[in-house]
Design a protein that fits this description.
With 460 residues, the protein is of the alpha/beta class. Helix content is 42%, strand content 14%. The protein folds into three domains: 222 residues, no CATH class; 62 residues; 116 residues, 3-Layer(aba) Sandwich (Rossmann fold).
């Protein structure tokens, strides 16, 4: 995360021998979170064997590539915001203006345009060793954080696949690696094969301290209740008028200057020279009050110089879907889960479904959605579209990544029943759409249509 380079608003000065800062482990470390430990276990053999090459990592259909030089991190890239990540590191290190002007030589052969740009700047002595190390370090830490977050969610998937209720740590320890993380080593593959593309070994990043830093950073993120929240999301002003009434004029002016719906949390953190966790912690009260929301945004266009020299992208590996399990006839009442931060909606859904002889579980905190679903394994899910921390689209996406819920009907609840929302809901895997306010007949019709149990007419 951005904290790797910024502490209390100041930039740490690095030199070619400076390892990533190692923070002391918290006294009350939440030992239920083992995703970073699991990743470290998978990478340790390559560190010990002084591996040089590329590690292709796939978790939950997402792909990353780690480049190692004699067991040390040399570079990292992957799906998602690769261009935004490169741009952030260039801005933070003071190299963005120079990087925008470079032109690779015709015939240069390289895998990573961003790494190639850095080597050109170093060769021209535009980038110092301290700047290059800072860029490599920041890039690797961001990618490792993304992998750890994906593993944490995939661990829940593994836990369900084994039909157990063991702690996540036990699921990670007992799961076959292929079920959770696919790792493919490519011996000798480098991010660049040009004569300028080999940076000094002293510019690479020590693996153990980097992984330890990632683990501690991820634990802080989870303890704040942000397990489902990616720092690649963009804050948006959901209720600007309400926000203006709740904040001082100075605070509101500051928020409106940095929040435009086009910058991710990481982008803003670099802009204001603040750690992304500290930024998120300052925004959290407004997010919980729904005056500020978090939205997914696309990556930036590929830089012109990269488009001119970029090799054809490899076909992404696809993870085969697990075959659907068709349950036999079951006359017991269905179990319905309602995920909505509004207690009144939860209470209303509970009352009308109980009268229809259906079992109901309500969830008001987005961060509790996946753990609760894994515990109860419902037949039908009602999901509010507008939730603090994570939107209904994001929660739906996360639910669909769990094999056990790929076929579970998910009905989106929203007060904004528009065609665009319906299209987006379908794209993230929602089964149907139900407009608010809640109407008993429509809810029961949805249960009758999608849930496995039979409705009772008692009390209706």
């Amino acid at each position: 995360m951005d904290a790797a380079l910024t502490f209390s608003g100041t930039r740490t000065q690095l030199n070619s021998q400076t390892p990533l800062p190692v923070l002391p482990r918290p006294q009350s470390q939440p030992r239920q979170l083992y995703a970073a430990d699991f990743l470290s276990q998978q990478l340790t053999p390559f560190q010990q064997q002084r591996f040089t090459g590329r590690l292709d990592i796939t978790v939950g259909g997402q792909n990353w590539r780690l480049y190692l030089a004699l067991g040390r991190f040399a570079w990292a890239t992957g799906d998602g915001h690769a261009i935004r990540r490169w741009r952030r590191q260039m801005i933070r290190s003071g190299l963005f203006a120079s990087a925008s002007k470079i032109r690779p030589r015709q015939g240069d052969c390289f895998e990573c345009w961003d790494y190639q740009a850095l080597t050109i700047l170093a060769q021209r002595q535009v980038a110092s060793s301290e700047q290059a190390i800072a860029v490599i370090q920041g890039t690797v830490v961001e990618v490792l954080f993304e992998i750890v977050q994906a593993i944490e969610l995939a661990g829940l998937n593994s836990r369900t696949a084994h039909r157990d209720r063991l702690p996540l740590s036990t699921s990670l320890a007992t799961s076959a690696n292929s079920e959770l993380l696919e790792l493919l080593p490519r011996l000798g593959v480098r991010p660049s094969n040009t004569d300028t593309g080999i940076l000094p070994r002293t510019w690479t990043i020590e693996s153990e301290s980097t992984l330890q830093f990632t683990e501690i950073t991820w634990q802080k993120w989870c303890k704040a209740g942000l397990i489902l929240c990616s720092p690649n999301r963009a804050p948006v002003l959901s209720q600007p008028e309400t926000l203006q009434r709740q904040t001082t004029a100075k605070t509101y002016k500051s928020l409106t200057e940095i929040i435009n719906g086009k910058r991710s949390l990481r982008d803003i953190a670099v802009l204001i020279k603040k750690d992304v966790f500290a930024l998120m912690r300052s925004l959290l009260p407004h997010i919980r009050q729904q005056t500020i929301g978090l939205a997914e945004i696309a990556d930036l266009p590929l830089p012109t110089f990269a488009r001119a020299a970029m090799p054809a992208p490899a076909e992404p590996r696809r993870v085969a879907k697990a075959p659907a399990v068709i349950a036999g006839a079951d006359v017991c009442p269905s179990l319905v889960v309602c995920i909505d931060d509004n207690p009144q909606v939860c209470r209303q859904m509970t009352e009308l479904l109980n009268r229809a002889n259906q079992r109901v579980v309500t969830i008001q905190e987005a961060v509790q959605a996946l753990p609760t679903l894994l515990t109860h394994k419902p037949d039908l899910i009602f999901l509010d579209l507008v939730m603090p921390i994570a939107s209904g689209y994001e929660i739906c996406t996360q639910i669909r990544r769990v094999a056990a819920f790929k076929e579970t009907p998910i009905i989106i609840l929203t007060g904004n029943d528009g065609i665009i929302d319906r299209v987006r809901a379908k794209m993230v895997g929602a089964t149907d759409f139900l407009a608010k306010p809640i109407e008993q007949d429509k809810v029961l019709a949805a249960v009758a249509k999608y849930a496995r149990g039979n409705l009772s007419a008692t009390g209706i």
